Amino acid sequence: MSNKETMVESLHKGVCQVTFEKTDGSKRVMKCTLNSSYLPQNLNEESETKESNPNVIPVWDIDANSWRSFRIDSVEEFQTGSFLGG
Length: 86
Hints:
It contains 2 helices and 5 strands, in the order αββαβββ. Helices cover about 15% and strands about 35% of the residues.
């Protein structure tokens, strides 16, 4: 599995698909990014202003159009932009 730095770097490059286990035990597949071209202008800096937890990555959820986060240790699969057919 990729480490946090690799995940964050990929998220800054484009959209990634993350499969992880939520805190309630359910499985979630999320298309997300940290690429500023996908973020609404007024929200570009929001992830940097929240208190940092080294075990959590805050991301922009492409489908929900809002900030979400996932715990690194809950990630089952992390796919870069190739899952979109690119």
